[in-house]
Structure formats: C-alpha cells, structure tokens
Amino acid sequence: MMKVGKVPENVLKRSVLRQIHSRREEVCMGAGVGEDCAAVKLAEDEVFVVSTDPITGTAEDIGHLAMHITMNDLASAGADPLGVMLTILLPEDSEETLLREIMRQIEDVCIQHRVQIMGGHTEVTRAVCQPFVNVCGIGKAKEGKLVSTSGARPGDDILATKWVGLEGTSILAKAKAQELLARYPGWLLEAAQGFDKYLSVLPEAAVAVGAGVHAMHDVTEGGIFGALWELAESSGIGLEIDLKKIPVRQETIEVCEFFQINPYELISSGCMLMAAADGSRLVRELEKQGIHAAMIGKATGGNDRLVWNGEERRFLVPPQADELYKVL
Q1: Over 70: is that where the pLDDT of 35 sits?
Q2: How far from 53 is each of 50, 72, 121, 216, CA to CA, in Å?
Q3: Are the C-beta atoms of residues 185 and 250 closer than 8 Å to each other?
Q4: What is the mean pLDDT of residues 177-195?
Q5: What is the reported pLDDT for 36?
Q6: Which of 57, 72, 73, 100 is the most buried (most CB within 10 A)?
Q7: How many CB atoms lie under 10 A from the CB of residue 181?
Q8: Is 37 exposed, middle or buried (0-12, 13-18, 19+ CB in 10 A)?
Q9: Mean pLDDT across the stretch 43-59?
Q10: R_g of the chain computed on alpha carbons
C-alpha cells in the first residue's frame, strides 16, 4: 500500500519509468527522476499542437480512455501525435499494482500510435476518491495543414464517422453489467462492452486531412448534439441535420433505453464530426479504409441549428451535462 504524497523513487522507477517503452526520435529530453520538463525538436516547417484532457467520469480502463481522448483531440487538428505528459492522482490506500496497471494501459496506446511518455507527475492524495488521470498530448503538423473546429463553411456537407455513443455505451456496459444482464442476452452486453476498440479516430482523421476536410471535431462529452453545437458556434454557421441519418448502433439504443437516457447526448469518443465541400467523396475515401461514415446534414449561412426528425424539428442548444452522469 502506498502512502500519501509523491510516489517513492523506487516505485516511480519500478512501476512508471520502467513501463515506458515507446520512443520518438523527436523527443530530446524525456521522463526521468527529477525531470520537470520535456523537450521536442521539430523541423522548421512544423508547428506544435498541444491538447489536454482529464478522465473524471469512470475509473474503468482509465488509462486507455485518457490516452484515446487526447490522441483524438490531436488527430482532429490534423496533427501527428508525438508524446504525452501525464498527471496521475491516486486515492489514499491505493496499491502499487493499480499504478502499474494504469501505466500498462497508457503504454499500450502509446505503442499502438507510436507515442512516447515524455514525463509527468504521480501522487497519492486525499484530494481524490478514485484514480484521476490527466493527459497533455503533444503533436506536430505541417504549417498550413492545421484543421480546426472553426473551419466549416456554409454549404459544406456534415459527416459523422463510425457511430455515436460508443464510449458511453462501453462504459455503462462494463459498470452496470449485472443490471443489464437482467434484461439483455450476454452476447449483446459483450458487444457493447467491446465498443472501446473503436475509440481511436486517428485513422479517419488521416484520411480526411488527405481529402481536404474543412473542419473536424471529435465527439466527446455532450454527445453528437453537443459536438454539432460546438462546430456550428466555432465556425459561425447554421445547421440542418437529419436525425435519422445519424449513425447509432442497436446496442447503444438498448443500453440507453434501459437507463432512460438520450444516445445523442451521450459521450461519444470514437465518432468524428467532419465538414467537407464534397461529403460523398469523403465518405467513399473513408469506406475504402474500412471506416463507416454517413452524411447527416448541411452547414447553412444562417444562425439556426436545427435537427429534423421527419416533420418534427428541434433547435440545438449549448452542450448540457453528459447523459453518462445520470447513471454513474
């Protein structure tokens, strides 16, 4: 059992530093005992891209989730992820095995995406009641090739990749397995739990950048409705969205129905929102790479952000508290 405060040097070496295997040649100063900073060397025509995100909604698979969210943020800007700086806060009386497991999960994603853990801070503290992981991601992009959330233009097609609600469905299927098994068969629950394999949007981001996408935004807290609002607000556009075209898996519908929550306002890492002049072409390019995508509407020159369900319409509003928090 670890004591409150910075983890001891022997624990830091054994369960943190020795778990770091993925390396990048651009990192010229990385993680080490007593190192408070990291350094990266870039070419003259490259720019830094930085993003940071915490995981607070669940302790299940926290290392995987924290990494995927930050990698997705960098990818949505058209950046190549290089490395991460970590802050790991653990509750009092945590075992060292918990720290080692979080590091294993983080390093799994690092190896998958060729990213290096460059440094960070690890502490046991009474300030948290469950593990807390914050990831600061560092990436690079060629000058002039950055993609922003604010790049959508009137007339653009609006696309969504894969399906909405993937992350929230996976979290709920794992955290509430026994409750869900009282209604649904084991195969459905197993499929829902496995949605975490879809969480990375790096493959679709790479395709979209090559196809000249105007804007990208990863769909996280607040779900697709929240992401649509943020895209429109950032770009200064209106929206006409067809609810029936938004891709959603049946497993997500069933889980959301069980807990009486809205799948379109459920945390949705793994789904990327895109704006492009030729949405059909982008869908074809994505499908060539085995990535499901759908055109769900158009960007307009007005201020109205509308979602149509047949003849019924609703106005989008700024993102509210995620539906996940109603259950957990």
Answers
A1: no
A2: 11, 11, 15, 17
A3: no
A4: 97
A5: 67
A6: 72
A7: 13
A8: exposed
A9: 85
A10: 20
At residue 89's C-alpha, the angle toward residues 85 and 93, to 5°, is 145
CA 175 to chain centroid: 19
Sheet containing 293-300, strands listed edge to edge, beginning at the edge strand earlier in sequence: 215-218, 272-276, 157-161, 293-300, 238-242, 305-309, 312-315
How is residue 164 annotated by DSSP?
A: B
Reply yes or no on whether the pLDDT at 157 is more than 80: yes
Residue 189: what residue type?
A: L
Q: Residue 248 gets which letter from DSSP? A: B
Q: DSSP for 210-221, please give it.
A: HTT-SEEEE--T
261 closest CA partner among 320, 318, 312, 311: 320
- The proportion of the chain whose per-residue pLDDT surpasses 70, expressed as a percent, equals 99
Q: Residue 310: its pLDDT value, please?
A: 95
Question: Whose CA is closest to 239, among 312, 317, 171, 169?
Answer: 317
Q: Of the given ranges (274-278, 290-294, 296-300, 316-320), which has the lowest mean pLDDT?
A: 316-320
Q: Please give the C-alpha separations between residue 35 and each of 17, 31, 106, 270, in angstroms, as whole numbers.
A: 12, 6, 20, 34
Q: Any idea what the Cα angle at residue 106 is, between residues 269 and 128, rounded to 5°?
A: 85
- Average the pLDDT over 40-56 and give the result: 87
Is the distance from CB of 12 to CB of 122 less than 8 angstroms?
yes
Choose among 31, 30, 275, 26: nearest CA to 140. 26
Global pTM? 0.86
Read off the tokens for 170: 């996976």
User: Cα torsion at 224, 228, 230, 235 (round to 10°)?
Assistant: 150
